[in-house]
From TrEMBL:
The chain crosses the membrane at residues 21-43, 298-319, 348-371, 391-415, 443-462, 689-713, 741-760, 775-794. One of its GO terms (molecular function) is transmembrane transporter activity. Pfam families: FtsX, MacB_PCD. It comes from Parapedobacter pyrenivorans. The keyword Cytoplasm does not apply. Keywords: Cell membrane, Membrane, Transmembrane, Transmembrane helix. The lineage of its organism: Bacteria, Pseudomonadati, Bacteroidota, Sphingobacteriia, Sphingobacteriales. It comes from the Bacteria. One of its GO terms (cellular component) is plasma membrane. It is a multi-pass membrane protein. This is ABC transporter permease.
Length: 812
């Protein structure tokens, strides 16, 4: 019986090679997209799901509200971690995690007896200060050293196995114990080696220094270990609650305890418990050096996968039901010989399972290639090997079962429903074009092109918005300007010397020092107020710093007043037009000379800057003030790049001067216009994804349309022959065969347009400055779809119209 099934299946697929290829292509494209997308989604939702009792693990975060300005931070006051185990009940584990300061980078020197000088590893990342509970919380495998006491003493460090191999490639994990490493000015002894975590996690530590080292060294002041009213993002705290402790009760105790230690600002701050499963997805609390996944993006990806998979299934249903007449006699003979409807359904569903399985195998083989092609969309750490996770293998089997059922169920019911008397009298073939099943095929074809046109519209609108955002006037110059940072812990004389050198270079037009660019990825708020005689106004205000050349470098215009004065220190401010409006003045010049209460001092406004965008066009322009400050960020405007080489030469000269003053530091720079474009990385990734989804949906739809057109033309061969004999032209025949398919595309546009308008209008609502959806976008989408359909069908129609009518009218 099994042999008969495979023989029948093989003969059917081989006899209908074109339809077999079209079905395999449609299913393979849909399944490939679904596999890759499901791999990404499964990977993202796998983060930090491996910890025992993960539902009891929380990160303590800060939600603040200062004068109506909301703020959120993953950092907490440094002494909190050591205080709450003794003051609050219901905690099983307390795990402080302090990132190594200095942009989370270090210099590691390894002193070997046989080495003439220490080995140098520059800017190592993922170094944290923590305690022994860290390893119990995450379930690390202990390779060497004593887990219970490895981080009990100061000046000890535990390494992951990968770092131990990097630093001591010739030593076993046991031999590494007792070796010394120098982290900047800290000399530490290796006290343990643990296995690397091989599961997705946002706990990125690879070198673990004992928390007691901070208290026993000069780092205590740097980490503000005794400061309750301030915090930095490098100080994080995780807790694991006891089994019978509720999160709400613990949080209430926590905030009561905190307000006792921070009486001045505690009323404006709430310490909240962030569940472990929320850490990877919550954009309000980003990890240092970590990555936040967007659930909305993942759900969008799942929708794209579902659409593409549905298109492949629709193709299969359309082409299989269209071939019904060719299998009618086979079905009649089988029923006459005693086959039941159930057996026929099993046969046809089995054929679908074979087709789906072959398509799935082809898709699996293509995944490594797809992951390389789309590497910029693939989360770091995700490889094809992740497919072999037990959980994902279950997803894979479920996918095959669902696709087989969706694709094969309806055709199997249709084919098995034929009556032997009708099919053996050859009545089915004459009816297939006009039966209710042809109507179903039309509905499915409309659905295919509605999905394709939705993607076309979405791609067009997203691309238009991105181009609009990137090309928008930011209110300051972005061309030929780049910025770079110098070490913050160096003497200011070096910075001044470098600035003088840069300004004197022939390829440099102007240079300035400060901090953020006018529009930057980072945001900096400040608290400032203005008393208008009746009330004190406190607008939510951003701040920028720079020297007296900063505005000229970026071409920021003043609409009133003057620039800040040169000199080592000035006590005056510039504000933008929006700030002037917020404090109640209609004309910019009316605010000149007014005093603001800032940092406890009365500081005059000496100039009004023309409004400029300080973030992407998603955000409205906010009140902003500018203060003189010679910061560690250099802003350099280059002269025109006339010969194509002058910019490169100027940057090389600046790099040489930089390394002359900072020989051990890397020189990293970024052009401001490139940084502005990075504001829209997420949107650009969305546009690229939509482009691929659009292309694949059009391809799948055209494959289905090609198959249906081929079948329809074949069944109407005698009609076409008679029309030609009676004098019909090639053009009239092509028009006759194409118009029905084009009508379906028009109907699909009518269905897709309002759905696309609603979806894109919701997406554009996130932008403060946005494009308008124009009528031509919808008309152009319909035109593209109609032309594509006409070309797909027309190629077959022309072939049929040019065929010799004698061939089609000859009796079989």
């Amino acid at each position: 019986m099994i042999k008969n099934f495979f023989t029948t299946t093989y003969r059917h697929l081989w006899r209908n090679k074109l339809f077999t290829v079209l079905n395999l292509l449609g299913l393979s494209i849909g399944i490939s997209a679904a596999l890759v997308i499901s791999l990404i989604v499964y990977y993202e939702f796998s983060f930090d799901t491996f910890q025992r009792d993960s539902d009891r693990i929380y990160r303590i975060v800060i939600d603040a509200n200062f004068n109506g300005v909301e703020g959120h931070s993953v950092g907490v006051p440094a002494p909190l971690g050591s205080a709450i185990p003794n003051e609050i009940t219901g905690i099983e584990q307390t795990v402080p995690v302090f990132q190594f300061q200095g942009d989370a980078t270090i210099h590691v020197r390894i002193d070997e007896d046989h080495a003439s000088k220490p080995l140098l590893f520059k800017k190592q990342k993922d170094v944290v200060f923590t305690n022994n509970d860290y390893f119990r919380l995450l379930g690390y495998q202990w390779i060497s050293g004593q887990q219970s006491s490895a981080l009990a003493q100061p000046f000890t460090v535990v390494l992951t196995q990968s770092r131990a191999r990097l630093y001591f490639p010739d030593l076993s994990p046991t031999a590494v114990i007792g070796k010394q490493l120098t982290y900047n000015d800290l000399t530490l002894t290796v006290s343990g080696v643990v296995g690397d975590l091989d599961k997705p996690t946002d706990f990125n530590g690879r070198e673990f220094i004992s928390l007691a080292t901070i208290e026993a060294s000069s780092l205590k002041e740097n980490f503000m270990m005794d400061v309750w009213d301030d915090w930095m993002a490098y100080s994080q705290l995780y807790v694991k609650l006891s089994a019978n402790q509720s999160a709400q009760a613990f949080q209430a105790q926590l905030n009561t305890f905190y307000q006792q230690h921070n009486t001045e600002r505690g009323k404006d701050i709430t310490l909240s418990l962030q569940p472990l499963h929320d850490i990877h997805f919550n954009r309000l609390y980003p990890n240092i050096g970590g990555r936040i996944a967007q659930k909305s993006t993942l759900y969008g990806l799942m929708a794209v996968a579902a659409f593409l998979l549905a298109l492949g299934c629709i193709n299969f249903i359309n082409l299989t039901t269209a071939q019904a007449s060719q299998r009618a006699k086979e079905i009649g003979v089988r029923k006459t010989m005693g086959s039941s409807k159930r057996q026929l359904i099993q046969q046809f569903l089995g054929e679908t399972v074979v087709m789906t399985s072959v398509a799935t195998v082809l898709s699996i083989l293509s995944i490594p290639i797809i992951l390389r092609l789309f590497s910029k969309f693939i989360p770091e750490g995700l490889t094809a090997d992740f497919m072999f996770q037990p959980g994902y293998l279950f997803v894979l089997l479920l996918l095959v079962a669902v696709v087989s059922f969706l694709s094969g169920c309806y055709p199997a019911l249709i084919l098995s429903g034929f009556t032997p008397t009708s099919v053996l009298r050859n009545q089915v073939s004459g009816l297939t074009g006009q039966t209710r099943h042809a109507g179903v095929r039309k509905i499915l074809t409309i659905s295919q092109f509605a999905i394709a046109q939705f993607f076309i519209l979405a791609t067009l609108i997203v691309s238009q918005q991105i181009n609009y955002s990137i090309d928008s006037d930011m209110g300051f110059d972005t061309g030929a300007i780049f910025k770079f940072d110098t070490p913050r812990d160096t003497a200011e004389t070096k910075s001044r010397q470098l600035l003088h050198t840069v300004q004197s270079l022939p390829g440099v037009e102007l240079a300035s020092t400060g901090f953020h660019a006018p529009a930057d990825r980072g945001v900096s708020f400040t608290t400032v107020s203005f008393h208008n005689g009746t009330e004190e106004l406190k607008p939510t205000t951003q701040i920028r710093w720079g020297d007296e050349h900063y505005l000229d470098v970026y071409g920021i215009k003043l609409v009133a007043g003057r620039n800040i004065s040169p000199g080592d220190a000035t006590n005056e401010l510039l504000v933008n037009e929006q700030f002037v409006k917020e404090i109640g003045f209609q004309r910019p010049e009316e605010a000149l000379g007014k005093f603001l209460n800032w940092n406890g001092n009365a500081v005059p406004i000496v100039g009004i800057m023309k409004d400029f965008h300080h973030q992407s066009t998603r955000s409205s322009i906010m009140p902003l003030l500018f203060q003189k400050n010679n910061g560690s960020t250099f802003h350099v405007r280059l002269k025109p790049n006339r010969d194509g080489q002058s910019w490169s030469h100027a940057i090389a000269q600046i790099q040489k001067a930089y390394h002359g003053l900072y020989p051990d530091e890397d020189f990293n720079y970024q052009f401001v216009d490139e940084m502005i474009a990075q504001f829209y990385e997420h949107e650009q990734a969305t546009a690229s994804l939509l482009t691929w989804a659009m292309s694949l949906s059009i391809l799948i739809s055209c494959l289905g349309l090609l198959g249906l057109a081929t079948y329809t033309i074949n069944t109407r061969g005698k009609e076409i022959g008679i029309r030609k004999v009676l004098g019909a032209t090639v053009g009239s025949i092509v028009q006759l065969l194409s118009k029905d398919f084009v009508k379906l595309v028009v109907i699909a546009l009518v269905i897709a347009s309002p759905i696309a308008w609603w979806a894109m209008n919701s997406w554009l609502a996130d932008f403060a400055y946005r494009i308008d959806m124009e009528w031509w976008m919808f008309a152009g989408t319909g035109l593209v779809a109609m032309v594509t359909a006409a070309l797909t069908v027309g190629s077959q129609a022309i072939r049929a119209a040019l065929a010799n009518p004698v061939d089609s009218l000859r009796d079989e």
